[in-house]
């Protein structure tokens, strides 16, 4: 990373209290392994970086499209405590002892889940009809979602959200959570969430800041998708892993345009370790 970028990072941050991080394609490598680099080689670099952050007392706060139960499993293994699930639609503290629902503008009946509301309004049918054969449920992972419909495919998000609005469903949005591993029917698929428009990774971080009284200059984000980078407005510095910019021109453009967003030299977990190394060298952890 260039010297002028390091100077800007140093200027924008105090000692770090929280790192908001994506998981898939960011912290972990191919197949979701913490011990595999992007080329499939076994390494301890990511594990050492996580340990370094935890030893410094930093809250490594996962912000992911995964469900709360799936994130709880990861958190217990890695020593994390807090996370935002299903693209920020719920915020979970201390492995589930406190859960904050980050959803508004939809009228849920008693005991009704947001996904039930989405299905009842016909929103999924609209998306499937508009993009036949281009998007479907991301099974089996979609089967345990409660706050959003987890989908896989290749569609134009702007058009999808236009369709929702035209049918009186502006309270919902389709969000692109980035490129994921190929499947037989989609060689270059993206992961999507159909969820309440009020929910998102950025709004979850904003709410967490309010709840815990955190200051922007104490916070760092790391991610790879265009949805991840929305967090940049809530943190002092946002790091983009190289694979995110390689896979999506919008990510590269944002990394070049926003003053607090910096593109890392490495990909996936190696980039995560690079970010921790930068913060340590600058005395921020």
From TrEMBL:
Gene Ontology molecular function, alphabetical: magnesium ion binding; phosphatase activity
What SUPFAM superfamilies has UniProt attached to this entry? HAD-like
Origin: domain of life: Bacteria
Instruction: Give the record's GO CC terms.
Output: cytosol
Q: Which InterPro entries match?
A: HAD-like_sf (IPR036412), HAD_sf (IPR023214)
Q: Which Pfam families match?
A: Hydrolase_3
Specify the protein name. Answer: HAD family phosphatase
Please name the taxonomic classification of the source: Bacteria, Candidatus Aerophobota
């Amino acid at each position: 990373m260039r010297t002028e970028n390091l100077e800007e990072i140093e200027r924008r941050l105090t000692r770090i209290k929280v790192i908001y991080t994506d998981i898939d394609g960011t912290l972990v490598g191919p197949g979701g392994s913490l011990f595999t680099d992007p080329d499939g080689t076994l390494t301890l670099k990511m594990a050492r970086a996580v340990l370094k952050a935890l030893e410094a007392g930093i809250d490594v706060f996962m912000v992911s499209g995964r469900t709360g139960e799936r994130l709880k499993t990861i958190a217990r293994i890695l020593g994390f405590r807090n996370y935002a699930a299903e693209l920020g639609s719920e915020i979970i503290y201390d492995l589930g002892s406190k859960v904050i629902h980050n959803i508004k503008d939809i009228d849920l009946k008693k005991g009704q889940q947001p996904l039930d509301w989405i299905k009842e309004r016909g929103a999924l049918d609209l998306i499937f009809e508009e993009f036949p054969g281009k998007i479907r449920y991301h099974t089996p992972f979609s089967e345990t979602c409660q706050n959003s419909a987890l989908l896989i495919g290749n569609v134009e998000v702007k058009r999808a959200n236009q369709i929702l609005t035209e049918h009186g469903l502006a309270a919902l949005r389709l969000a692109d959570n980035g490129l994921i591993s190929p499947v037989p029917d989609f060689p270059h698929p993206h992961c999507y969430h159909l969820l309440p428009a009020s929910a998102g990774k950025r709004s979850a971080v904003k709410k967490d800041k309010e709840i815990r009284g955190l200051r922007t200059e104490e916070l760092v984000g790391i991610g790879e998708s265009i949805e991840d980078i929305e967090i940049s407005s809530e943190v002092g510095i946002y790091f983009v892993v190289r694979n995110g910019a390689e896979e999506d021109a919008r990510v590269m453009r944002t990394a070049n345009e926003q003053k607090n967003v910096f593109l890392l030299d490495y990909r996936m977990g190696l980039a995560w370790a690079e970010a921790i190394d930068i913060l340590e060298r600058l005395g921020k952890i």
